[in-house]
Design brief:
Elements (H helix, E strand, L loop, with lengths): L1 E9 L2 E13 L6 E11 L3 H15 L24 E4 L1 H12 L2 H8 L9 H14 L4 H7 L5 H5 L8 H13 L1 H16 L5 E9 L9 E4 L5 E12 L4 E8 L4 H13 L9 E3 L6 H9 L4 E4 L29 H13 L4 E4 L2 E10 L14 H16 L6 H7 L4 H9 L5 H8 L8 H8 L4 H13 L9 H17 L3 E8 L1 H30 L7 H14 L6 E10 L2 E10 L1 H8 L4 E6 L7 H9 L2 H13 L10 H24 L7 H8 L3 E6 L6 E4 L5 H10 L7 H7 L16
Helix pairs in contact: 2-4, 2-25, 3-8, 4-7, 4-24, 7-24, 11-19, 12-14, 13-14, 16-17, 19-20
């Protein structure tokens, strides 16, 4: 970063402004550019600009500015000496003391090997965690950063002993104890904060500069960039403390990896039966069934494609005619209108931006477990078919496929059963009485395909006059056996607790984005048609159709629009033009889900619908953790080249996150974050003096401001600025004894 002067001319006058700018490379093309960090105000005097540059340069070098005296130098002034060094102190001291207070240093000392090294490895890890919290840079940068801080005095580590070789050796040791470290963090968090009310689970990714390790695979990151990446699964407490994490392959599916972490938690006695909240990555029925089988107390949200299978009835009709906003300025009014409409439905208002409804216990759909062959009992097949038709007619399910899947049937088998409802009523009655149970169901399906009423009666009588063919079960035994089997299967069906909630702001924004997609599609069609009408264009109708289908696929609209071509007459002949036809039924079905989320929970989770809604909405705890490790701790980009080093890097970031969350918990009653607290304490440096004629260094701490002392009081760390305790806590560098291993570790 550096100070830059920006000039602006207005009329005949030129104004100069000072700015603090930073160089960085753009993600899109890697080109180095500048961005403004802070505007420092208007510059009216050259001396003012020189002072700004001098102050910034001194701060960057860890030096202290002293105002020049107007009085001549005297003999008394000559006795004042400059410090040998000005060391970064108070912010790193708070991090180190927090690690000691929450027990991280003790756990690292217990877990890391202590033999064969003249420097305790937990001290190296403590220094790396402190760097992650206050000045996150590369590990190589850490070896140059540490001597400019008071960490050597606080940890008793000579700057020459903290070298790149030792750092990477300790990283290998840290990776080896990763699982034991996670268990230790969980236990410490449990001891300090009591039993967790809720756990939160999510997955993010981090990308690499260069090739990366074996786990790194090329793919699209969460930010939308195509990079070589790995995934990181994180389980945290409701206070945001990291409890479990796992580095996974970059292209790993989210669901199975998250399930693996959830199962591992259930093996810890004091973590067992604590609800785990996760997002829609586990909102598929197959994952929900695995969670139920593992008896995991879970709360997640269904994928929208699963709504129909659970028979979810959303009060979306009252909101269907709400016009979508066309400009950002209309978002507020449209949201207020959506709130008024929501209050007219059966939804219960939890807050102005949140409404919910309790849908009770719902059977979990079975993933097409029924074999594709048809049963021989016609009466039971007709009963099932009539139930499927009735469930769709009563609007419990929107399609026969969804109703069949909820009944444990494949859509194909369910469709065949439902087609039996087309039999004439008298024929249905005879079938239900078992008069044709001795005949194959395929024969009855042939009769159903006959649309003529009299032809159905004739074919049915012909079937009854035929001699029944022997089957694996006799008609009587089969008819009586099928019902108990169906009842038993129904009694074993798994159930989940279902709650739906509605967010008016999300509803309006989704409607707005949908309208924008329609406008973009129209513009895309217009552009392609213009190119097709241009004689100089090389675009052909086949290529234009492919381009439009690719655009629809990228925006998840390919199933909603049918792309075709038509011939438009012109004076020169005819012109091929693209046409797009929208599936109105499917479009309205998608819009009926706007603003709604459907939550599913373990049936034994004893919380009200309102509590489940609040609990799921609080999952920003893990999302905030990811934000901290991405921005404050700077998880990415990663520059390591082996899987072990990447896991060690992630472990360092999690330790730094634990410190951040511990500080945030102590400051929870104050309007200040952990990042802001460390930033406020950063300017308080420690002056190191070399005393002539003595073998000890002297350390002087400047006067601490009232704001800094008040912050330390909130943290219970005022001893860090008390002169007596400060001298006892620091080991002067002059006492360090160099060893032959210092240079090579």
């Amino acid at each position: 970063m550096h100070v830059r002067v920006s000039s602006v001319t207005r009329g005949k006058h030129t104004y100069r402004y000072a700015q603090l700018v930073e160089s960085f490379r753009r993600d899109s093309d890697g080109k180095p550019v500048h961005r403004v960090i802070a505007n420092l105000g208007r510059v009216t005097d050259p001396t003012q600009l020189d002072n700004l540059k001098a102050a910034f340069e001194a701060n960057r070098n860890g030096e202290r500015l002293v105002a020049p005296s107007a009085e001549p130098t005297t003999a008394d002034n000559s006795r004042l000496r400059r410090p040998q060094a000005i060391l970064r102190y108070l912010d790193v001291a708070v991090v180190v003391e927090t690690m000691r207070r929450v027990g991280l240093c003790d756990e690292l000392s217990r877990l890391l090997p202590q033999l064969g090294s003249d420097v305790a490895p937990e001290r190296v890890v403590t220094a790396l965690v402190a760097q992650r919290c206050v000045d996150p840079q590369s590990k190589l940068r850490a070896t140059r950063w540490l001597p400019r801080t008071a960490l050597p005095e606080m940890l008793g580590v000579a700057p020459t002993q903290f070298n790149n070789t030792r750092v990477h050796r300790v990283l290998e040791q840290l990776e080896a104890i990763e699982h034991e470290l996670m268990r230790a963090l969980s236990r410490r968090a449990h001891e300090q904060h009591g039993r967790f009310a809720t756990l939160y689970l999510d997955l993010t990714d981090t990308w690499f500069e260069g090739q990366g390790p074996d786990l790194a695979k090329k793919g699209r990151t969460k930010a939308g960039h195509v990079r070589r990446k790995v995934g990181i699964v994180l389980l945290c407490s409701d206070e945001g403390h990291p409890l479990r994490w796992e580095v996974v392959e970059g292209t790993s599916a989210e669901g199975p990896r998250m399930l693996q972490v959830m199962r591992s938690v259930q093996q810890v006695p004091w973590l067992e039966q604590i609800p785990i909240v996760c997002d829609r990555a586990l909102g598929h029925t197959a994952h929900i069934q695995q969670l139920l089988n593992a008896n995991v107390q879970f709360l997640t949200a269904l994928l929208k494609s699963e709504f129909d299978s659970y028979g979810v009835q959303l009060p979306s009709e009252s909101l269907a005619d709400c016009p979508p906003p066309t400009r950002p300025s209309e978002l507020g009014e449209c949201t207020r209108q959506a709130v008024r409409r929501a209050r007219q439905t059966e939804l219960t208002e939890l807050s102005e931006d949140l409404f919910y409804t309790d849908l009770g216990l719902v059977d979990v759909p079975v993933n097409e477990t029924t074999a594709d062959h048809l049963p021989t009992v016609c009466s039971e097949a007709l009963r099932i078919g009539l139930d499927l038709v009735e469930s769709v007619a009563s609007r419990k399910f929107s399609t026969h496929s969804a109703a069949a899947r909820a009944a444990g049937l494949s859509p194909q088998v369910g469709g065949r059963y439902a087609s039996l409802a087309r039999l004439e009523p008298e024929l249905q009655e005879q079938t239900l009485m078992g008069h044709v149970d001795g005949y194959p169901l395929t024969r009855l399906l042939q009769i159903v395909r006959t649309t003529d009423k009299s032809a159905q009666y004739t074919a049915f009588e012909q079937l009854r006059q035929e001699t029944p063919k022997p089957t694996r079960h006799s008609p009587t035994a089969s008819a009586h056996a099928q019902r108990p089997q169906a009842k038993t299967a129904q009694s074993k069906r798994q159930q989940v607790r279902v709650v739906a909630y509605f967010n008016p702001e999300v509803f309006v924004r989704q409607r707005w984005l949908a309208q924008q997609k329609l406008d973009e599609l129209e513009a895309q069609v217009t552009e392609l048609n213009q190119r097709l009408s241009n004689p100089q264009s090389h675009l052909k109708p086949k290529g234009a159709t492919q381009k439009l289908n690719d655009w629809l696929r990228r925006h998840d609209l390919v199933t909603l629009f049918a792309v075709g071509t038509e011939q438009q007459p012109t004076p020169e002949g005819s012109l091929t033009r693209l046409t797009v036809k929208r599936d109105e039924a499917e479009w309205q079905k998608r819009r009926s889900f706007d603003g709604f989320s459907v939550l599913v929970a373990h049936p034994k989770l004893k919380r009200s619908a309102a509590e489940l809604t609040r609990t799921y909405r609080a999952k920003n705890a893990v999302e905030a953790d990811f934000q901290v490790i991405k921005s404050v701790v700077k998880l990415r980009p990663v520059r390591h080249r082996t899987d072990a080093k990447v896991r060690a890097h992630v472990a360092l970031c999690m330790l730094a996150l634990y410190v951040q969350r511990s500080l945030a918990w102590q400051l929870r009653k104050e309007n200040i974050s952990a990042e802001q607290a460390l930033e406020q304490l950063e300017p308080c440096r420690l002056c190191r003096y070399v005393t002539k004629g003595s073998d000890r260094d002297a350390y002087v701490l400047p006067q601490v401001s009232a704001e800094d002392r008040a912050l330390l009081r909130r943290l219970g760390l005022t001893r860090l600025v008390e002169p007596g305790e400060l001298r006892a806590a620091l080991r002067p560098r002059s006492e360090f004894v160099s060893t032959s291993a210092d240079g090579t570790a």
